[in-house]
Amino acid sequence: MSRFKELCQTYNRAHSEMADYLESCVQVIQQLVRGLETYLGIPEKRIQFRDEEGKDKSVHEAMYLENGRWHFDTAITMCPEDTYRQRRVEFRRCYYPRQIVVLPLALQRLSAEHFVITIADYSTEFKIDLLDENSFTILYEAIFEIIQTYYQNILHTILEHGESPLKLTYKDLEF
């Protein structure tokens, strides 16, 4: 075997390993978002992935690697539920008043079953064990608390900043 063929084999193995790693991360992100939808009872089509520019994308297109973690923004469309229900049959989407809450998340794979999830600017890391549903529940409850705290303090945030931020960060929740 030539040295070049040997290099090609090494390249193929490395490429396959990276593709497998990426796909396992994508599957965990999709599982995480489906679980969040179920846990919070988010209606259909109200949670999306966003890229760095804020555009709705597929999970593959939205995620980017930085500092050893896959970053992805999860956008949740918020609007009064009664407004959504009234319009759902006819339009199947949410109209004013609505707001899109963007959660900047990052995922790092530790092993085949263990991952770390972080929320931008939060000091807490959430350790996810794919075999332990409770590890997901802890993260989902934290996300619920973050969004709830944001809305409980939104008037103060708007008055202080002149508008509500597009992405939730820790500084938006400190009072």
What can you see in these coordinates?
With 175 residues, this protein is an alpha+beta fold. The protein has one domain. Helices cover 46% and strands 23% of the residues. The protein has 5 helices and 7 strands, in the order H-E-E-H-E-E-H-E-E-E-H-H. Strands 1, 2, 3, 4, 5, 6 and 7 form a 7-stranded antiparallel β-sheet that branches. A hairpin with a 2-residue loop joins strand 3 (64-66) and strand 4 (69-78). The longest helix is centred in the first third of the chain and has 38 residues, at 3-40. It comes from Chroococcidiopsis cubana SAG 39.79. This is GAF domain-containing protein.
Labels describing this entry:
175 residues; alpha+beta; seven-stranded antiparallel β-sheet; 7 strands; elongated
In short:
The chain has about 180 residues and is of the alpha+beta class.
Number of domains: 1
Radius of gyration: 19 Å
Q: Can you count the helices? A: 5
Question: What is the helix content?
Answer: 40-55%
Number of strands: 7
